[in-house]
Structure formats: C-alpha cells, structure tokens
Amino acid sequence: MSFSWSKALMRRRWSVFLILLLGAGCGSENASTGAAPAHPGAPIYLRSCFSCHASGLAGAPRAGDAVAWEERLAKGREQLLKNTIEGVPPGMPARGMCSNCSDEQLADAIDYMIKESGLK
Ligand code: HEC
Fold first, then answer.
1. Coil, helix or strand at residue 43
2. C-alpha 91 – ligand 1 centre gap (Å)
3. Where do the structural domains in the chain lie, given as residue ranges?
4. Which helix (H) or strand (E) holds 28?
5. Domain 42-116 architecture
6. Strand, helix or coil for residue 88
7. pTM above the 0.90 mark?
8. How far, in Å, from the CA of 19 to the mean position of ligand 1?
9. I want to staple 112 with a disulfide (CB 3.0 to 4.6 A). Which of 23, 41, 85, 88 is the partner?
C-alpha cells in the first residue's frame, strides 16, 4: 500500500517538474517576443561581421562609430553593398566571409551597423 502511494507521489512530482520546465520555456519565449523586434541584420552582423567591425580590426569601420560610417555612407549604399560583396583588399574579405549570406542579408548587416552608429 505505502509503496504504491509513494509511486503515485513520484509520478506527481515528475509532472510538476515537467510543467515547471515547460512553463520556463514559455516564459523565455514570451520575453523575447515581447521585446522590440530585432533588426534583421543583427544576427548576420553578430555571426559574420562582429569579429572585425566591433573592434575596428585592421581599420574596419566600427559599428557604433558615426564618423567612420558617415564617411563610408557618403559613397552610397549601393557602393557599400558592392564593396562588401567583392571585398576591400586587404582587410575586408569578400561577403565579409559569409559565403552563404544572400546579397539582401549583407545589405541588412550593413544597415544594422549604420543604425547602430546612429545614422540612417
Ligand atoms: C576579417 C575582418 C572583417 C570581417 C569579418 C568583415 N569586415 Fe567589413 N571591413 C573590414 C575592414 C578592414 C574594412 C575596411 C576596408 C578598407 O576600407 O580598407 C571593412 C569595410 C567594410 C565596409 C565599408 C566598405 C567601403 O566601401 O567603405 C562595409 C560596408 C563592410 N565592411 C561590411 C561588412 C559586413 C556586412 C560584414 C559581415 C557580413 C563584414 N564587413 C565583415 C573587415 C572585415
């Protein structure tokens, strides 16, 4: 008798545990969808461009540096995208080393860095 009771209790505990786990999952999902929508270029920037463009490695215009980006932006977005696709030797690799990024994704990543710098 007492044995089956403890078994039932164990099962209960498991279900409470599972519900807590599921609840935690939902909670974090809500938190991320509740925030302002992320810029579409953010994940591409973080994956492929961040390594150079966060620190300004090898003279890369730093994301967040309005002066650096204003200078670049003066060429026009079309030209910036073209240079990103083709690369700017020697520092800037073609497609920012993201060989499987589409042109559109690269344009988004550029736009993200420009916005991060407070420009439009
Ligand atoms: C290995 C380092 C590195 C990575 C990775 C990198 N960049 Fe760059 N990027 C540079 C450097 C260095 C320059 C400056 C080149 C110059 O003007 O001499 C630059 C310049 C640029 C420019 C300005 C080009 C111009 O015409 O003035 C754009 C736009 C740019 N990068 C976009 C990107 C994007 C988008 C990514 C990610 C998909 C990326 N970069 C990844 C190093 C990098």
1. helix
2. 7
3. 1-35, 42-116
4. helix 2-34
5. Orthogonal Bundle (1.10)
6. strand
7. no
8. 47
9. 41
